[in-house]
Every structure is written in structure tokens, then in C-alpha cells.
Specification:
Distance between the termini: 41 Å
Helix content: 25-40%
Radius of gyration: 39 Å
Number of helices: 9
Structural class: alpha+beta
Strand content: 15-25%
Strand order of the largest sheet: 3-2-1-5
């Protein structure tokens, strides 16, 4: 005698016959009459991977009498769901995902290696000078006293060959150019057009003592960097080219070629560098570089270029005129000499990022392959 479980589906009214339907492919659980131990009879028309569990309804074979002692508890019913096309579709999607991860890994890893190699080839010399160039305990009094000679020298040893052009940067630390009030203290229309009415956006550096407008106005221009560098290689003075250090788009679209500085650094407080009033703003490249504010408190800005190669073991002497006041807010200053590669200056992060992403993609591609074929 055999006990069978059959699938039950409810599809509206119509009595017991209308509520009970056999699945398209019948799969059943068979109980032995002695121990009522279930044994799965697989559906021959369905693949094993399409068996899933769902509640079942108990029915008895003809002639068998139901009793409390012999009635087993309902067990999950293995049912065949989904045609073989579903498995093929899932397999196809998985293969596509593996292919994408594999291609990303194969593409990113060589790019990362090339970027890291190029970054490591960059020769970079960095020397901080804000402390060594002050010969007094009161650094603020030193930098604010215009009668003190602020010239100092620093010496750099070249570790390896430096190919031209060699970029000269100044680096400032703990200077928050991204502060909201500092960034907004400017008038971009004034930099481009004549006779622009100034509001309160440039205060306290909007008007000179007599009420005349300051061009360029605002704290950003007022705090222009004014240290100077003179570079000597083995005692010979090398020219630092300061042409074309600003972005061409800034020179062409943000600064007018008929706008000239006026009343600059003639307010109540004197900030940084002064500007030549006979040169239009579009050609004041030190100003243009400075006016592109930095996003981080420690930043570098281009000072100029050395159009001459420097050999290994050469001695570089940088003569610095230490004028810029970073001592009032605890800032730092450094001079940077660096070569360049096809990715710019030294930046190991780009190469490491590409290698990390490429390695992760290869790991995921391998993991999905093992899951599919394992």
C-alpha cells in the first residue's frame, strides 16, 4: 500500500475538482507503508535543479483507511518549476558578468602598472624653508618688519638625472583657500569687464582709502603669494621661465586683456604681492594661478619652469626672498622642483587604484567561474 502527496492549486470556485489541479510535470513524495519514511520519486520530465519546495496536500491510495496513528505530518513538496530555458538564461548572464570582470581586470592592471612606473620615474625635490629662513624667535615680528633682510639660501642635492622642463612649485600648508568666506571674497565680473559695480562681496578689500574701487578686489587677490625664488646650479644662475604657467582658458575667458590693476594693495592692510599696473590682468599669470583656489589646506601652485636639464649629483641652490606671512596662522612653506611624466607629477595613487580595481575584478571573475563550474 502506498501513500502519495499531490500538489494542490486553487484557481477560483467550482468545487473540489476545480480547485485541485496536477502540475504540468508531476513530482511526488512516496511513503512506505511500514515506517512512513519519505523517499523522493524524481520527475523524469524535469531536471533535478528545478525542484523546489512548497506545501503539499495529503491524498491516500484507494482502499487505504486514514487513521491518527498512520497519518504522517505534511512535508515540503518537491515541485518542478521553470523550464530549462531559465537555467540557460542564468548561465548566459553569469558568463557575461565573468567576461566583463575579466576584461576590466586585463585592462586596468596594465594601465596601473604603467601609471605607477611613470610616477616612480619622476624626480622630485621638496625642501621646507619657513623655519630655517627666520633668524628670530618672534617669527611674526620678523615677517612684518620691512627693514629686515629676508633673503635666505637652501641647498638641494640632485639624486638622479632631471630631464627638462623642470617645474618649480611653491607649497603652502595649513592654508584653507576653500573656506567659504575666502572663496566668495572676489568679483569675477570685475576681472573681465570694465566699470563693474562692487557690492559687499569684496569687503574689506573692495575700496581703497579714498573710496575708489580696488582692481582686483577681494581677499583672494589681496593674499597673493609674494615669495621669490632664484635657482643656481653649481653656482650658475638658471633662468626660471614664468610664461605660460596659467591655464589658457583662464587667461582667455576669465581675465580681460583691457583690465588693469588699480589701487591694489593700497587699502588699510597690505597683504601679499603687488601688481604692475601697466600690465593687463590677462598677462598677470602669477595672479591667475593664485586665483584658482585649492581644494585642500596643503597645496602646490606652479611658480615657473627651468628649461634646462640637471645632471645627477649637481648642487642646486635656491635663493629665497622670504616675504609671505604664513606664521600668523601656523602655516608652512616649501619649494618643490619636479620633473613630469605623461601623468603629470609624482602621484602613486593613480597606479595603485588601477591595480587594486583590476585585481579585484580578476578575483571576482575567478570566484564566479568556480561557482558556475564547481
Amino acid at each position: 500500500m502506498a501513500l502519495w502527496l499531490s500538489d494542490t492549486r486553487t484557481r477560483g470556485g467550482g468545487g473540489d475538482e476545480a480547485r485541485t489541479r496536477e502540475p504540468p510535470f508531476s513530482c511526488a513524495v512516496r511513503y512506505s507503508p511500514e515506517e512512513f519514511t519519505p523517499s523522493i520519486t524524481a520527475c523524469p520530465a524535469c531536471p533535478k535543479s528545478h525542484l523546489s519546495s512548497r506545501p503539499s496536500t495529503l491524498t491516500f491510495a484507494p482502499g487505504h483507511q486514514r487513521s491518527a496513528a498512520s497519518t504522517p505530518l505534511p512535508l515540503p513538496f518537491p515541485r518542478c518549476t521553470g523550464p530549462p530555458a531559465v537555467r540557460r538564461l542564468l548561465l548566459l548572464v553569469t558568463v557575461q558578468v565573468i567576461t566583463v570582470f575579466l576584461l576590466m581586470g586585463v585592462l586596468f592592471i596594465p594601465i596601473g602598472l604603467a601609471a605607477l612606473f611613470a610616477s616612480l620615474q619622476v624626480v622630485e625635490l621638496v625642501e621646507r624653508y619657513d623655519i630655517s629662513c627666520v633668524h628670530m624667535n618672534d617669527k611674526i615680528a620678523f615677517i612684518q618688519n620691512s627693514k629686515i633682510n629676508k633673503t635666505c639660501n637652501i641647498t638641494l642635492q640632485v639624486p638622479k638625472y632631471m630631464k627638462s622642463p623642470i617645474l618649480v612649485y611653491y607649497q603652502i600648508g595649513n592654508f584653507y583657500q576653500n573656506h567659504r568666506r575666502y572663496v566668495r571674497s572676489r568679483n569675477d565680473k570685475q576681472l573681465r569687464y570694465k566699470n563693474v559695480h562692487l557690492g559687499k562681496e569684496c569687503e574689506p578689500e573692495g575700496h581703497a582709502a579714498g573710496g575708489a574701487p580696488i582692481v582686483p578686489c577681494g581677499l583672494v587677490a589681496w593674499s597673493l603669494f609674494n615669495d621669490t625664488f632664484t635657482v643656481k646650479v653649481n653656482g650658475e644662475t638658471i633662468e626660471v621661465n614664468k610664461k605660460d604657467i596659467a591655464w589658457k582658458s583662464d587667461k582667455k575667458h576669465k581675465f580681460g586683456n583691457d583690465i588693469y590693476p588699480s589701487n591694489f594693495q593700497k587699502g588699510r592692510l597690505i597683504g601679499g604681492a603687488k601688481l604692475n599696473e601697466s600690465i593687463p590682468l590677462s598677462e598677470q599669470e602669477d595672479l591667475i594661478v593664485w586665483m584658482r583656489t585649492a581644494a585642500f589646506p596643503t597645496f602646490r601652485k606652479l611658480y615657473g619652469r627651468i628649461e634646462k636639464e640637471i645632471m645627477a649629483e649637481d648642487n642646486i641652490t635656491v635663493v629665497i626672498q622670504n616675504n609671505y606671512n604664513t606664521y600668523s596662522f601656523g602655516g608652512s612653506k616649501a619649494v618643490v622642483l619636479s620633473t613630469a611624466s605623461w601623468i603629470g607629477g609624482r602621484n602613486n595613487f593613480i597606479g595603485i587604484a588601477y591595480l587594486t580595481i583590476g585585481g579585484l575584478c580578476l578575483f571576482l571573475a575567478l570566484g564566479f567561474t568556480v561557482l558556475v563550474h564547481g
